[in-house]
Amino acid sequence: MSQTIPTLLYIDDDAALARLVERGLTRRGYNVILASSGEEGLERIRQGNVQGNVEGGIDVVALDQYMPGLDGLETLEQIMAIPHAPPVVFVTASQDSNIAVTALKAGAADYLVKDVKGDFIPLLHVAADGALRQAELQKAREEAEAEIHASRDRYAALAAERELLLREVNHRVGNSLQIIASLLHLQASSAGQDEVKAALTNAMGRVAAVAQVHRRLYTSQDLKSVVLNQYLDSLLEDLRRSAEGNRMSRLTLKAEPVEIDPDRAVAVGIIVNELVMNAVKYAYPDGAGPIHVELIARDDEVLLSIADDGVGDAVKADPRSTGMGQRIVAAMASKLDASVERDGAHSGTRIVLKFRRTTAPSSAANNAAAS
């Protein structure tokens, strides 16, 4: 309701009854405007609507059914077609319930039966008050829904902006890591000592494993997960390109589609890099040989194996080895909560990791859930 004293438009061709309604509702706190026909009432509503419902606007309408020209139902239909139309209380002397049902279906807020003496005026006052409250609630509901939609739009815009920023960050981080890997490759190529060359090559592989995750996140529609088989395929291709000579020409991948979170993908990539590089260095002392990476998904468990057909247990410990690779594999396996086993039945060397596809709940979380 837009003003302190609500304005009621009473549309009825019975002038004497209209004056009774005017006096009765004025005493009850209403400003009453009279219209003797449906056409006049519609014009009065349209004028108030154009004025913005501030001065001269109509807050509620009481509408008689039987009038010359447009009857009540026809007038009601046209009122409902007016934007921001006021609520309508349908008034008639007829006892026909079909008229009531039709009026309510057409949009009337309430319905009551009038009499020629004006005894219905108290009921009309109650009905008008109820229609005004109903209109206010409807307006508040529409405003709340509009605010909810606006909030959702703002949230969607912020989420899209955040996703764009994350993609840009992942892109820049991936580029920076790739630059670092390239610098390490150049340094390794110019190194005169084999142990320095090997150390730089290993470092380059570790950096490239992390860079691949960021490149995957930048080009993926899902920033929360990495498709592991695609990631490993790109990672092994990086290793092939970075290898000297033909040392990784027979590096193969057999992998099933598995999605895991980026942090765990980094751990898997670093493990694969360490074990593949270890096989390159030690499995085939006399040259190159096959190295197989396999990824298998079993329900929530993932099996990752890196195998070669080389010398296996017959390999002699390299006195230049610092054991860094083993420590890195152990650290990354711990991050994955993975078991690491050596396949004793394999003729060469086969390392098998088993870990869950999703992160297992922590003990603290389990205790909180139990309490």
Write the layout of secondary structure elements.
Blueprint: E1 7-11, H1 15-27, E2 31-35, H2 38-50, E3 60-64, H3 72-80, E4 88-92, H4 97-106, E5 110-113, H5 121-190, H6 194-219, E6 226-227, H7 228-242, E7 251-255, E8 259-260, H8 262-282, E9 291-298, E10 301-308, H9 324-336, E11 339-342, E12 349-356, H10 363-370
Helix pairs in contact: 1-5, 2-3, 3-4, 5-6, 6-7, 6-8, 7-8, 8-9
Give structural notes.
The longest helix is centred in the middle third of the chain and has 70 residues, at 121-190. Helix 1 crosses helix 5, helix 6 packs antiparallel against helix 7 (228-242) and helix 6 (194-219) packs antiparallel against helix 8 (262-282). With 371 residues, this protein is an alpha/beta fold. The protein is 53% helix and 16% strand. A 5-stranded parallel beta sheet has the order 2-1-3-4-5, with helices on both faces. It has a 5-stranded mixed beta sheet with strand order 7-9-10-12-11, covered by helices on one side. It is rod-shaped and about 115 Å long. The protein folds into 2 domains: 7-149, Response regulator (Rossmann fold, 3-Layer(aba) Sandwich); 191-370, Histidine kinase-like ATPase, C-terminal domain (Heat Shock Protein 90). The chain has helices spanning 15-27, 38-50, 72-80, 97-106, 121-190, 194-219, 228-242, 262-282, 324-336, 363-370; strands at residues 7-11, 31-35, 60-64, 88-92, 110-113, 226-227, 251-255, 259-260, 291-298, 301-308, 339-342, 349-356. Strand 4 (88-92), helix 4 (97-106) and strand 5 (110-113) form a beta-alpha-beta unit.
